[in-house]
């Protein structure tokens, strides 16, 4: 398998597959492919693991169905492009030794051994009370995954005990060794008039984190005044149930 990333502001990932090799992605991610690529769509790709596994994946922002792309008989090429300005980041997963947490729509594609689930890390309250920005996808298994992060990237390597407080929308991804907790914005006046929400993500090392400069919520807010009519209904972002409902509705809409 060979890969290359084209472009800068709106990049695309091209994957050259040898016969029998495959990658999988969420429904609707395909950009282009050669004639030798075969498609198989199923709910169990990405570590679906039955009904509960599918529900966890959807709560984390994934789609109900996943599609596997495999080169059949001859080498083939498959491509996935970003949906907003940003970057494509490859990460390596090793069973029992390496895992990653990424924002709800950060998974672009991966090799067959990659598993996608719902990750609260050490704080269940982060997912229930923190809103959509705190509902994370958890990547485990064995293989390579490619992440789609929006805007420019700031990569920080946190030392043991070092903490960075981040607005939830700017959390792109972080290694599993990083502790993820929620913390309230300090000060009553800041809570009421600051406009930064009620919660921040407290990321504590050791480990690497990827911060994204263009949260999708910020982009949507900036564009909303230019959209005709009333626009799309707001996504329910109050917790696990809201995340599941929002994922189902997103999967039913044209992408």
The N- to C-terminal Cα distance equals: 28 Å
At the fourth level of CATH, the homologous superfamily is: Mitochondrial biogenesis AIM24
Number of domains: 1
Largest sheet: number of strands, sense, barrel closure? 6 strands, antiparallel
What number is the mean pLDDT? 80
Work out the helicity level: 10-25%
Low-confidence stretches: 126-133, 231-249, 251-255
Proportion of strand residues: 35-45%
Q: Which architecture would the CATH scheme give at its second level?
A: 4-Layer Sandwich
Structure description:
The chain has five helices and 19 strands. It has 255 residues and is an alpha+beta fold. The protein has a single domain (2-224), classed as Mitochondrial biogenesis AIM24 (Double-stranded beta-helix, 4-Layer Sandwich), CATH 3.60.160.10. The strands form five sheets. The protein has a six-stranded antiparallel β-sheet. It has a four-stranded antiparallel β-sheet with strand order 1-2-7-4, with no helix packed on it. Strand 1 (2-6) and strand 2 form a beta hairpin.
